[in-house]
Each structure stands twice: as C-alpha cells, then as structure tokens.
Amino acid sequence: MTDNTLLIKNLCLCYCENKPELISKTVNTISHLVHIEHPTIFQDELRLLDKIWKYFEKYGRNQESIRFGQSYARLSKLKILKARLETLQFLYNLRNTASSEHRHHDSANHTISSASSITSFDMPTFSLLSTTRIKNDQQQNGIGRIKSSTSLQKLLHYNSNNGHVDDDEDSNMDHTKSTLLTNGGGGELVLLRRDDETKILKELLFGLQGIETRYINGNNGNNGNETTTTTTLDRSTKALVNRFLECGWLYEKIRRIINSPTTGLVSQAFVANLSSELREYHRLLGNVFDPTGPVSLKKLHVWLSTPMQRLKSIASISELCQGGALLSLLYTHQQHGDPLQQSTVYPLLYNCTVPIRDMIVEWICNGIINDPYQEFFVSVDKKIDDEKLWYEKYSLRTSMIPSFLTEEQAEKIWITGKSINFLRVLCKDRTVLQVVDTPASPETLFQQQSSTEFHDMIISAYNETTRHLRQILDEKYHMMDHFKAIKRYLLLGQGDFIKYLMDLMEVELNKPANQVFYHNLQSLMDSAIRVTNAQFEKEDIIKRLDLRLMCVSASELGWDVCCLDYKLDGPLKTIFTEDNTLRFMRIFNHLWRVKRMEYTTCGVWKQLIKNSRRFSSIPEIIDLMHTCFGISNEMTRFVQSVNYYIMFEVLECSWSDLLSKLKDAKDLQQILEANNESLEKIIVRLLLDADEKSQDLAKQLRCIFDLILNFDTLTQKLFLTVDNELDARLNYQQRQYNDQDAELRRFHHVFKPALKTIKSEIQILKKTFRDAVLKFLQQLKTHPDVTLRCLSFRLNFNEFYKVS
C-alpha cells in the first residue's frame, strides 16, 4: 500500500466510525478521484487556498479555518503528499455534497455520521445503489457518465466490486485508455477516451494557428473563437478547448497586423519582430505536437500558458502607428509590473528604437534628416527660403515625440540640428564639430532612469554646437554691438544726437507730410552724425543707420511720418526680423512723439520767458500771461513725468533684463525669446498692445498730446496778436499821438476782441487738459500692469488732480 493510499485510509477511518463495509469502498473511490487525470479548474495552489479561505469566511467557520491552516502548514512542511493540489481540489469539491435526503435511509444504507463539525469540511453521505443503468450507459455510449447531483453516492457504485468494473468494461477501458474529466459547470464527470482526445488535439493543431476546420469554426465576435463539434463535448472540455483557441484568435490578430501595409522604418522593425515572435510560436507548436512524444489536453494547457500570455501582450498592441507614436505606444505597454509583459515588449521596443536613434544621431551631428517616411519628430520643409530657416524650415512635430523623451530633450535635439544648419547656410561656417564620439545604445533612450548615456550625448552635442554658434555671432557678426546701437538710436538713448537732429529737422518736419522729402532729411541726419558723438561709432553701425518715411495720409505733418531705421542682413536678420523691425518702428514713433511734446513744451516755456518782459508794457495781458505760465508748467510736468517713466522705468529696466538674459543665453532660441520678451514688455508698458484698456489709454494720451500742440498754437497766436499791438502803439507814438480817436477805436475793436477770444480759448483748453489728465489717471489706476498703475502716482504725487 502506497503512502497516499495509507493517508486516505486513515482519513476515511475518522469519518466512517470503524465500519469496515464502508471503509473499503470509500478508500477505493477517493483514491481513484485523487489519481485520476483530468483538467483541474485551479492550476494554482494559492488561488485554490484563497477560495477555501473565502468559503470559511462566507459561512463564519472561523475555528475550522484556523485548524485547517494548522493542518495545511504541517502537511506542507512534511512534504509526504505529492498530489497536494489535487487533494485540496477534491476536498474543496466536496464542500456542498452533504445532503439531508440521505440521512433518512434505512440501516442497510447506513450513512457516515455527519457530525463532522470537528473537521474542516462536511463529508458527503454515501449509499450503495444498483449499477444496472450505469452499465447499460457504458455499453451504449462507450463513455461512462456518472451523475452526481448533491453527493458522490454513485461513485461508490462505479467501484462497487472492490473498485473494479466488469471484465468486458476493463478490457474496453484498457483498450481506449480513457481519461476521466471533471465538468465543474454541471456537476458531472465524463470519461473521455484517448482516441477522442487525440482527435481534439489534431483539430487544435489547426485552431492554434487560427485555421478553421470541419469541427472548429472561427467566430470573430467580442468573445473571440468558439467551437462547434458534431459530437457534443462536456462543458469542462469545451471550456478548455476554447481557451486553447484563444491562442489561435490572438495568432490571427497578430498575423493581420503583420500582413497590413506598413510604411516606415519603425513600423517595419515592429512587423519584423512580430514575425519573429510567430516563428517562435510555430517552433513551440512543432515541439508540443511531436508525434514521438505523448501529449494530453492537460499538458498542452501547461505548455501554452506562457506563450498565451506573450501573445496577449503582443496582440494588445493592435494599433499600428508610425515613428515616435508607435514608440510611445510600445513604451506604455513596457511600463508594466508584470515581468513577462516587460520581457515580451522589450525586444519590440528595442528594435523599433534603433531607426529613431540613428535619425537623432544624424541630426545632432550633421544637421541632416534622413526620414523618407515622416517618422522623425523633426520635420523639414524644403520650400522655405533660407532667410526663414530658423523659424519655419524646421519644425517640431509633438505627436511624433516618443513618450520616453521629455519636451526639454526633444527641444534640445531640435535646436542642435537647427544650429548646425544655421551655421552652415547663413553664417557660411564649415567648421566640423566633434559633438558625439560614440552614439548611445538604443535601450538608453527608454531606460534613462538607469542610464544617462543618451542624455549625456544630447547635452554634449547641444553645448558644443550652441557654444560655437554664440561665438560666431559675437565675434564675427558683433551681435551685442548691434543691440546697443538699436538701443541708442531707435530707442532714443543717444540724447545729444536726438536733440540736435530735432533741432535740424524742426522746420522740415513742421511741413505737411506730402512736402517732406527723404533726401532733405537724410542730409540733415548726416549733419547730426558729424556734429554729435555719433561720429565715433563704428563705420558698420553708421552705414546701417537710415531714415524711413512711412505712408502719408491727409492732415499729417512730417513729424508723423519720419522714422529712424536700422538695416540688418545675414544671420542678424534672423534675430532682428521684419516683424521685430516693425515693432521697433512703433516704439520709435511713440518715443518720437513724446520727445516732440517735450520739445514743444520747452519751446513754449522759452517763448513765454522771452516775451514776458516785452509784453510788460501792456497791462491787459498780465493775467493771461500768468495763466499761460501755469498751463505751460502743468503740461511740462506731465510730459516730463511720462518721458521719465518711458526712458527709465520702461526702456532702462527692459534693457537691463535683456542684457542679463543675453548673457545667460546658450542657444539662438533663447536669444530670440529674450529679445521678443523684451520687445513685448516695452510694447505693453507703452500702451501699444492690443489690450482694450491699453488702447483706451493710448487714445487718451494722444488727446493730451493734441491739447499740448493746440496750446502751442494758441500761444503763437497770442504772441502774434501782442506783437501787432506793440507795433501799432509804436506807430502811434511815432505819429506823436495824432488821431487819438482812431487809436481808441482800433484798441477797442481790434485788439481787445482778439485778446478776449484768445483768453477764452486758453481757458477752455486749460479745463479740457485737466479733464483729460484726470480721465487718464483714472484709467491708469485700473490697468493690469503694476508699472502703469505706479505711473498714476507719479503724475499726481501731490494729489493736484482730484481722482475719485
């Protein structure tokens, strides 16, 4: 007697209360069930133990759960039971077999005592029944079906003759080598003959490759494949076969991906790896279905467990993308906690990364894009001119950036290649840079947490290329000198030149715009350069300084259309683009207008000072002159405050920030961003942006400037009227005061009405100016920019204007 049989007998002695007539039958039946070859529902012992624990927890059998755990621990430590999983399966299947219907049988069919509350499981009640119907079924069908509804009573009858069947049945069983399969769904046990199992295996050989046969019909629904057979299989066998056919469905799905048309190096590498996986799958099937070696459904299930998981992992990547998008998809599937999933996807990701790695190396070393299928995340438009090389010719396709690359890394790769082409095409520099000694291996692209080889390669190429580009821009093209020249002339930083230029051009610029000519202004500007400190500038800078007359419209003066210009070409045109030039012109026009207001208010004040003594002999204009002085001081104060805000709080602060950023800038892109950011900040703080509040403030400021020009016109008119009065009085004195009546009529009918008109106009202008300034201050207080809000305090530091 083997160890297993002895253990089973000892177990049955605990339940049969020393009744010999039941012990023998029970031992034979249980031994047969323990050693029988059938597909087990639970392939994992831990999963089965979990089911058992949940069963105890469901029915509140805590004490039995503890004792079962102790018994299982001792059994695991002794290792005397080889078929431990099958034994646990058997005991677990007996959990619901106790039925009260057998407890009322007579003494001939005495039951095993059900007082098993001291054990972990309820033992079923057995009874001896007739075997006639079973034998008839076996003779008719060749396959013995043993029904069991709520107990295993009929299993005893299967081994009623001391565990043996009739001689005819014995020989038949030996001939067919039948296998007992358990159907977990309907509670019935089926004896499957060996030749029937062989037929199923032959059909499965085709089904595992997605091939339909006479008995296997592929149904491409949501549930995968289903089987249709001429002879009905029991549910457990059918479930097992359908599980095998899932491999065939996955195989067919992968094969469709392989056969789909692909374009692109990454896609071709992906398809090649899928083909390699299917070849390995074919090799496995060849080994499994080797005619020289026996195979069963149970063994087949064990052998196909891991290949099925690999097929599932591969088939889950059903979306055939291109380039970086496919790498992102593979990387997402590779970031999985299952080691099998990682090992399956790793070779796919590795081989698909090789083409992108080669494109990156070629781009950052030579600035060449070898991408015939548009898979690289840097694209080139060969139709774009070289002047727009940096802005439009090379673009970054974010959809093709692999997810294992950060945006910063992709941008550095993009900038490195553009810098090489910028040096070669626009700077005419053919210096060969040794940026990469050894290309990074493909796996370092998607394993950057464990290796910095790829990141170091990118940083090395980026630093070397951008350093050389910055050196060329500074030493060969004198980039910083041009920035400073623009600040001195277009942003009115060269004060002596601007003041002298306005003095020279005043007469010309006071003319209507259609009477102002370029050559006249050009000659005046050349004179200003020769006289002021601008003459000490580099010859290259002086040559680039120019004038531009903008479009002329009606009622405009030369002041409104004259603009300084600074011409740039070559690589510098990339930094100072046409768009930036237009923005510089807008800023210059605004500054030029403010300078004109300052120039005008200073001229009015000088005229008032000069004429105040000349007009002291006319007492009628003393009060009016006092009023004019007050308005002039008020306007001068306003213009000087605005000019101080522009020149120091806007331009100087922005220039200081720009210098700091240009000093820290490593690549051309950072230089461009610093320049654009500085220009944008200046435009916003000068009220030149598209914001609605800024536009309202700009309109109000232009209204104030127009009032200053009107005041200049009124003072000129006042001075002319008073000069005429002085000439008339001088003429009257020379005539020795003759015709006094005519003189009185002239005074009362000519001078006094003219003076009264001018006085009323000045009073109106005074009130209008204050109202305009008050409105301007109110609008400043609600502007989102803090610098402009601070301007309102500067303009009204003594609260002269009562702002609500």
Folded structure, characterized:
It is built from 31 helices and 9 strands. 28% of the residues are buried. The chain folds into 5 domains: 1-36, no CATH class; 195-320, no CATH class; 345-476, no CATH class; 494-576, no CATH class; 581-803, Four Helix Bundle (Hemerythrin (Met), subunit A) (Up-down Bundle). With 804 residues, it is mainly alpha-helical. The chain starts with a helix and ends in a 9-residue tail after the last helix. The protein has a 3-stranded antiparallel β-sheet with strand order 1-3-2.
- By secondary-structure content and strand pairing, the structural class works out as mainly alpha
The rounded distance between the terminal residues' Cα atoms is 111 Å
Count, helices: 31
Uncertain runs are: 37-42, 98-192, 220-231
**Strand line-up in the sheet with most strands:** 1-3-2
Q: In which range does the helix fraction lie?
A: 55-70%
CATH architectural label of the largest domain = Up-down Bundle
How many domains? The number is 5
CATH fold annotation of the largest domain: Four Helix Bundle (Hemerythrin (Met), subunit A)
Mean pLDDT across all amino acids: 78
Question: What profile does the largest beta sheet have?
Answer: 3 strands, antiparallel
Question: What is the overall shape?
Answer: elongated
Proportion of beta-strand residues: under 5%
Q: Please tell me how large the radius of gyration is.
A: 50 Å
CATH first level of the largest domain: Mainly Alpha
Count of individual beta strands: 9
